[in-house]
Design a protein that fits this description.
Layout (H helix, E strand, L loop, with lengths): L5 H6 L5 E3 L8 H9 L3 E5 L6 H14 L5 E6 L8 H10 L4 E6 L3 H9 L3 E6 L2 H10 L3 E5 L14 H11 L4 E4 L5 H9 L5 E3 L1 H4 L8 H9 L5 E4 L7 E4 L2 H10 L10 H4 L1 H10 L22 H31 L1
The chain binds flavin mononucleotide.
Flavin mononucleotide binds next to strand 3, strand 8 and helix 9.
Keywords: Flavoprotein, FMN, Monooxygenase, Oxidoreductase
Organism: Sphingobium naphthae
InterPro entries: Aldolase_TIM (IPR013785), NMO (IPR004136)
């Protein structure tokens, strides 16, 4: 049986589970597998080298599924910004109706998507940013706690506080992101006021995820302590899997007067791509969150999603429901 929430009803999906955009990972076979599992997956626009390639990748998802899916557009401050407006047009003109935005100053993108009738989930890491996005007219907030892979922001507020703090202040539905990997997390997120969960790291260790097996094995071998926070002093904190490169970046940037230029050769996006594709774990950085400590297998996406939902239902109808029965026994 499915769990119905405001999130599943808004997007016409079966389960309250999303797979957020993942650079070098969010490609058609994985996104289609997530859609076919009844969850909501996002292609990552900037993984495609051009807007034209993105259009073709959207077509490849449609070849594999007729269920809902979306596209992630990540707006980051970079030296050479990609042609965001062209990617945005490609998404709209392809008839995609669901977008996940993330990053800095999404207003122009949100306005254009909304004019085109696209539903927008904006992912952010602070209640004040979520409120600003709500005022811009986004449909859902994906609130990303400090546990997450990627950019947790600078406030260091974990999901246990951030999710209910966001739920208290926002009128639109929220989904909870960062640190989720199983049915226990899904029940907790629902209890904290979210309408579903968003996962990244958990989906890396699935059969349909086309990253090198070395990275999947590394995630299985890692525990919840095996991440590094880099770029803290640059106020652009990122959580990555701990390896020799992340250790070197942390060490170099801890030196007085250290600048981004001192680590630029270590952190180039193409090196991260090499880790994911060639499996050389010392070639560069790879994004991974603390949820690594909860990941012990490499299931098919469909099995993972149904297991999470089944676990959640067992907790709700089993262990939690029995608390009432036990309380009655004490009372009589
Ligand atoms: C390999 C990888 C790449 C990611 N790339 C992006 C990205 O390009 N844009 C984005 O908005 N989020 C990105 N994320 C973040 C995820 O969409 C998601 O918010 C995050 O992984 C949730 O935390 P979790 O890993 O604990 O589940 C990435 C995460 C991973 C693991």
């Amino acid at each position: 049986m499915a769990l119905s929430t405001a999130f599943t009803r808004m997007f016409g999906i079966e389960h309250p589970i999303a797979m957020g955009g993942m650079q070098w990972v969010g490609r058609a076979p994985l996104v289609a597998a997530v859609a076919n599992a009844g969850a909501l997956g996002f292609l990552t626009a900037l993984t495609q080298p051009s807007p034209e390639e993105l259009v073709r990748e959207i077509g490849r998802v449609r070849d594999r599924t007729d269920k809902p899916f979306g596209v992630n557009l990540t707006i980051l401050p970079t030296m050479r910004p990609p042609p965001y407006a062209e990617y945005r047009r490609a998404i709209i003109e392809s008839g995609v109706t669901i977008v996940e935005t993330a990053g800095h100053r999404p207003q122009e993108h949100v306005e254009d998507f909304k004019r085109a009738g696209v539903r927008v989930i904006h992912k952010c890491t602070a209640v004040r940013h979520a409120l600003a996005a709500e005022r811009m007219g986004v449909d859902v907030i994906s609130i990303d706690g400090f546990e997450c892979a990627g950019h947790p922001g600078e406030d260091d507020v974990p999901g246990l506080i951030l999710i209910p703090a966001a739920a208290d202040r926002l009128k639109i539905p929220i989904i909870a992101s960062g640190g989720f990997a199983d049915g226990r997390g899904l029940v907790a997120a629902l209890a904290l006021g979210a309408e579903g969960i968003n996962m990244g790291t958990r989906f890396l260790a699935t059969r349909e995820c086309a990253i090198h097996d070395n990275v999947k094995q590394k995630i299985l071998a890692s525990d919840e302590r095996d991440t590094s926070l880099i770029f803290r002093n640059l106020r652009n904190t990122a959580r990555v899997g701990k390896n020799v490169v992340s250790d070197a970046v942390v060490e170099i940037l801890s030196r007085p007067e250290a600048q981004f230029e001192d680590v630029a050769h270590l952190v180039a996006g193409q090196k991260g791509k090499a880790v994911m594709e060639d499996g050389d774990l010392s070639a560069g950085l790879y994004w991974a969150g603390q949820a690594q400590g909860l990941i012990h297998d490499i299931p098919a996406v469909g099995d993972l999603v149904s297991r999470i939902v089944r676990e959640a239902q067992d907790i709700l109808r089993g262990r939690l429901d029995r608390l009432f029965a036990d309380a009655t026994e004490v009372a009589v």
